[in-house]
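task queued by scheduler; priority normal; single chain, no ligands, no partner chains; default sampling; output format set to structure tokens
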Amino acid sequence: MGLRGRNYARQYWPFLVPAGVIVFAVIVFPWIFTLYMSVQEWHVGGKITFNGLANYQRLLTDERFLWSVVRTLYFTALAVFFPMLLGIAAAVCFHRKFPLRGLARTLFILPMMATPVAVALVWTMMFHPQLGVLNYLLSVVGLPMSAWVYAPNTVIPTLVMVETWQWTPLVMLIVLGGLASLPVDPYEAARIDGASGWDAFIHITLPLVWPHIMVALVIRTIDALKSLDIIFVISGGGPGTASETMNYLLYLEAFSFYDMGYASAIVVIFFVIILLISLLLFGARRQAY
């Protein structure tokens, strides 16, 4: 590096150091501290003692934790599948020209604009077994009333319904952006060749918009994995532990049971799971381009 290059480097340092300090304070240090705490035995108010890998060994035999992993993956699978399916369908519909299309798009994305806690409070009232509007509507059409979030076998699908209602518009917007950038020539050629609308969608639209679908899939998966607010407000992890995901169990261990060492070990395992799933999705996304 020449003299001029070294002078430029010295000029850049005052701008890089503050950003580096912030990144270290906000991201690097918390993770170092979490790793440190994950090998400690510490209840808030008590003495911190080193216990090696005891917290991780406890995780392997803790049925409550193991079931929370299963529930997290189950919730994530449903909370990704339905918004993706409905979001792609909505994007295709809104890509077509029809009267008041702009107004319809605006109304469709309104759920995404609300805060998750406000959404959860509204849906909690709607899920009430006796006073909720949903059971009233079911009774009007002659269907049996549902327990919604008050039964172990329906609580997670019900929570997924709320997630789907709120985050389908996000998938729609991402896919709609891809549809808006598609070329016209392949569709004209397919029409001349006599291809149906379904054939054009499968063989032209879907491959061309696939990179945008993968972006939506990555964002939606990561968001569903760390979902807490909807579960916390609507079901509180119940009934019993039927909707207790890893994120909710982590909250309980840290802020209800004050077992910071064990909670830190859950954080590390949770991070590893999210990292592995994210790497798989990013690898699939790179292949899509």
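post-processing summary
- DSSP finds twelve helices and two strands in the chain.
- The mean pLDDT is 89.
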